[in-house]
Design goal:
mainly alpha
């Protein structure tokens, strides 16, 4: 008589637990959304670029003088920032499907929509490189979780 012992039940349960962890919004989506905020802030509020990494535009001479009076630099590229309220309000927001990036203050959301409408440009959406970053991080987190 031959006796065979396996760890299949334990292994199966371990894998099911890991897969369940991957379904947890806190494990996957929240950290990635949190990591994307500084990337988007750099693109929009430092580099002055829309989601296609194109310049948002340039400030008029009159508005540029106004910005300088408010202790902002003389760079004419639009960086969608005067008081820093908009970029300081970026937040990870819970949604029905997981997490996203948005504004806690509805007035800042209105400002963001207004800038996109005036500039005819999608600014506050993920760029291709930001989306790729998110996909890469999902892969990294999945591998790390499954290999625990």
């Amino acid at each position: 008589m031959i006796t065979i012992k396996t760890n299949i039940p334990g292994f199966t349960q371990s894998m099911l637990n890991k897969i369940e962890k991957l379904r947890d919004r806190e494990t996957m989506l929240r950290p990635i959304a949190t990591e994307l905020i500084p990337l988007m802030t750099e693109r929009i509020h430092q580099n002055g670029e829309d989601k296609d990494n194109q310049a948002i535009g340039t400030y008029s001479k009159g508005y540029l003088k106004f910005r300088q009076k408010n202790k902002r630099n003389a760079d004419p590229k639009i960086i969608v920032s005067l008081t820093r309220q908009l970029e300081n309000d970026w937040s990870v927001i819970a949604t029905e499907k997981g997490y996203g990036i948005g504004f806690l203050n509805s007035f800042n959301l209105q400002k963001a929509r207004w800038v996109e409408a005036v500039k005819h440009s999608k600014i506050f959406q993920l760029s291709a490189s930001e989306l790729q970053y998110a996909k890469d991080r999902i892969t990294e987190i999945a591998h790390a979780t499954l290999n625990q």
